[in-house]
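Look over both lines before class:
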Amino acid sequence: MPLRLKRLLALSALTAVHANAEPVRTILPVPPVPFNGTISESVLDSTPTPAEPVLAPDNAPNVLVFMSDDTGFAMSSAFGGPVPTPNIDRLAAQGQRYNRFHTTGICSPSRAALLTGRNHHNAGNGYLSEMSAGFPGYAGTISRETATIAQVLRLNGYSTAMFGKHHNTTSPEKSAAGPFDNWPTGLGFEYFYGFMGGDTDQFDPVIYRGTDMVEPDEGNGRMVDRRLADDMINWVHNQKAAAPDKPFFVYYAPGSMHAPHQAPTEYIARFKGRFDKGWDVVRQETFRRQLAEGIIPRGTRLTPRPEGIPAWDSLTPDKKAFAARTMEVAAAQLVYQDEQIGRVLDELQRMGELKNTLVTLMQGDNGASGEAGPDGTINELRSMGRHDEDEMWVLANTDKLGGPMTYQSYPVGWAWAMSSPLRWTKQFASMLGGIRNDMIMSWPGHVQHPGSVCAEFGHLVDIAPTVLDAASLPAPEVVLGARQKPMDGRTLLPSLASCEANRPRTQYFEIGGKIGLYHDGWFLSGEDGRPSWENLPPTGERPKMDWTLYDLSKDFSQSTDLSTKEPQRMAEMMALWKQEATRNNVFPLDHRFATGRAIRGTVGPAGKHFDYWGKNISMPALGGSPCLAARSFTINADLVLDRPAASGAIVAWGSRFGGWSLYLDQGHPVFVFARSTDPKEITDVRASAKLPQGKVSLRLRFAAQAPGKGAEVVLSSGGQELPRAQVPVNVLMPSGTGEMFDIGRDLGVPVTDYRTPHGAIEGDVPHVTIDLD
């Protein structure tokens, strides 16, 4: 037999042996195949060991995990809600609904639990990532010891991609300087298209592909949810074109239904008058549908409206009109979101991929948001914790709700109605309205009773183990050199064949000092009394806790307190709570919402002097740029203007919903300070003289005065003072959380209307300095 043929046969046999050998997948990356060939002086006398990629196990499915934002248990028609969601309904008919599925109660912690399969404090995400603290449970980032399901699947032969909201990176890490370890591309996603932070404007977002901002015109007028679905479909097309047999893992997380509630005008028009009856009636109607459709068990009680949420009939006609419109917009946004989900599912069906795709859909990363308080808001961050917007201005914007000039969120009454029959809303880890969310799981051929409702307890920490189970993969012991903590969740895959409502289970909950503990059907609630729209509990930072106890196996809606009837069980549950809290790094408790917490996470870089070289610089307004609120500072800008009547932004911070801009308007230097869109809260300082063409300097002096006294603003150029004016306030929250500090342009939502696209300066900004007093 010729020597060359012998070598080819040997190589073929060796390849077959390696191909049939199942790799060890508990240590990731999977160790490479040892060299088993022979090496001689000539390649003609040598036998190689072929390099083999790590492949996913045979028959491993595609995986699509969808999680929306701030959606209550009772909003979607799939769970008896008043908003028609035909595409989610279709998925529910093909799969199985879970009516006892739980989240953590707020954004970042829920996303960490979902991605890692660990409890949120255990993964280092006990609270919002922007408000990280120096305690093990509150780092604000996902620890290396709790690798994400994306990382595990990527290292096991999956293609991985994320589309939408990423809220697990601290504010200082969101700039072009990184580090990028806590961006999606550092957490196992090979491709990312979406936004960083808690929310984004649906019309004028700041969107990233990988770690780079996309050009603002790329959206071509499309709203964010549409852009995400378009990009996901395009990615799947390309992934399957390149590797048709390679399974994908897609995490699809649009920012809706988080504020701002915004939707196309024609979608809002569909709901005209549909919510004029008010939240009390809508909640009761939803409750009756839920009972009739078997979403909730017979005997469930509709819990009463809490103190602090006004009765609908107590509102004035103008307030009713405003509140009804806010709900029309919210419903329109959910319908628009549902339409995009349908487009994705339809395309997977057309490609023949849906039949081998495990779909897990969660409506909400927590309950519906009540953070806008009893009145609602047209400016989310402006009103958060304050609620002192001018009532006449708010009501005057009723017809503009849902459009680009409002950053609205509905009154807490609607959040409560969208949680029927449960108690309270988002942030309430002590109440089911904050932590119980819709979940649907679908996998063609694996659902024993399509369209059914499963009452088995579930939690976000169960999603990662479920996906691993479907892919026939073990939970790894080591990932990229880091020994892994055990997963806290367990697979829900067996429930598709046989739903067991009373499986033993222990699961704690804690957000902002509000406490819950589920144990084998019983629920312990520790409540500090702070409404979700206030920064502190009524009695301050050390509140007296109110402890109650419920038998959820008989009391679906948490309606009847049994603490006095079950003192022994109450004591046992209290002891178990402390044990679980200690084990998961929950302590120390912090009962503050924004006050105090926000300061730590958003102070910006250290130092007093900052240099910026060149235009087109953008950094996160919160945490990434110098903190310019409630303090004095000086800006010096060197300019090179293309023409005598040049226009465009020099330095801009935030947006029209909260921000300021130093810019040129046909050569005239202008400083605009916008606490909101209310004309009474906008200060415009305009120079009568123009700056000349060519090289020129401009100086802004912002001299903060005593609290409540505002600031003095002085513009000057070449030593010559231009205008001087008084700004009524010196405290400003740049809004929203994804807005930027920009030089030579104004990305995202602009602070003001510019004469150039996106405020692009007609010229150059070679050097800018900022000096803090």
Observations:
- The two ends are 86 Å apart (CA to CA).
- The domain at 62-248+258-358+373-422+451-503 is CATH 3.40.720.10 (Alkaline Phosphatase, subunit A).
